Structure formats: structure tokens, C-alpha cells
Amino acid sequence: MRNMMSSSLITNCFVLILFIAPSVYGLLCHCDICSDTNFTCSTDGYCFTATTLEKGTGNVKRSYRILVRRCLDRERWFPPENPVACRRSETYCCSTECATCRRI
């Protein structure tokens, strides 16, 4: 009887954890200005990385973010079939998990 109660309690706790635990969808991306979320953001779209060359110094700077502390979610794609922010001449976006864009 005691073993049965213990098993039931464990099952109930497991089910409770499944309902309480937050779920993550899509890609988990590095975000260099998202300190409140441990420098990560989650998206159903793309991770975003921008590489720029600073005039005068020639230093290369990388930014891992877009649109005011957000990943590039599908709802922000414009136009939907080829988002301006992901045009290859300006940026390179990842729709799969890759080290270059995710950096985590």
C-alpha cells in the first residue's frame, strides 16, 4: 500500500511539473542586449546576427539581436516570403540551429 501511494505521489508531481514548467518553442538565440533573459531569446522564425565594419577604425562588430530586443519572429517578417532584415546582401539569417547565429 505504501509503495502504491509513493508511486501515485511521484506521478502526480510529474504531471504537475509538466503543467507548471514554462515551454520553449522554436529556436533559442543569443541576444547581446537581453540581460534580463540571460542573453537569450526564443523565436519561431530566425536568429539574427549583424556584422558591421566601423568606418575609420576598421573594427568588425557583431550584434546578435533585432527590433528592440527581440528575435525575428515570423509575425515581424516583411514581406513574409523574403524578410527585408534577412536579405543576404545585408545580413545572414539562420532558420536552423547553427553556431554562427545562435552563439550559445
UniProtKB/TrEMBL annotation:
The keyword Secreted does not apply. Keywords: Membrane, Signal. It is found in: Membrane. One of its GO terms (cellular component) is membrane. Residues 28-96 form the Activin types I and II receptor domain. Residues 1-26 form the signal peptide. Pfam families: Activin_recp. One of its GO terms (molecular function) is transmembrane receptor protein serine/threonine kinase activity. This is Activin types I and II receptor domain-containing protein. It comes from Lygus hesperus. The lineage of its organism: Eukaryota, Metazoa, Ecdysozoa, Arthropoda, Hexapoda.
